[in-house]
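Morning run. Coffee first, then this:
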Amino acid sequence: MSSKRFKKLPENTSSFTAEVIEKLLPHIKKNCTTKFDESVDLSIQINNKQKKGEVNIRTVVNLPGGTGKKVKVAVVCEDAKASDAKAAGADIVGSDDFIEKIKGGEMNFEKLICTPGMMIKLSKLGKVLGPKGLMPNPKLGSVTENLKQAVTDAKSGQAEIRNDKDGNIGVSIGKKSFSDDKLLKNYNAIIETLEKEKSNNTFKGDLIKSAFITSTMGVSYKLKLGKNI
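And here it is:
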């Protein structure tokens, strides 16, 4: 049963004509009628079914406007590099002892970064870290010698773009409290990343079938995208 708050929101928005994000942001913010700072989220469906097999996108994008969230970052590295990780702002830094704690189920962090040398040991915990989406990945920049850059990126605002088996991607571009300019910068960074993914893959036709924008407890609106994606 819908709440009184939800019943006051616009109805049948899925039937509305698609609009560019600049026109939709005021409506999205107006619909944020809860007491907390709602997220502004994108829901994208890509054409992942291709003749030469499925296309799977998995990458990260540094959001220029940030995410509005504090991310607890852990680093697994050699003892000699621990000071670099701590100086960059990592919340937890450890080596073999830390790996044992993770093995025992101690995972009080939201992002895990490690050096290539430690990845051999950490890879054995795939069944523990994998299901939670915490396994470091070179493609996502979380397996690296440059710990300072990786920690800084994770802390400053980074979003993962990954489609499920049906081609759906869900990603936040920020909070209701963000200025429109911040939200637009984050949105454009995500679209630019998807454009690069399209050019890196053998794609026929449009990459994106449809895209919608909504807030955590709001209603969704269809997005009008550019012709090159």
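The longest strand covers residues 39-46. Good start to the day.
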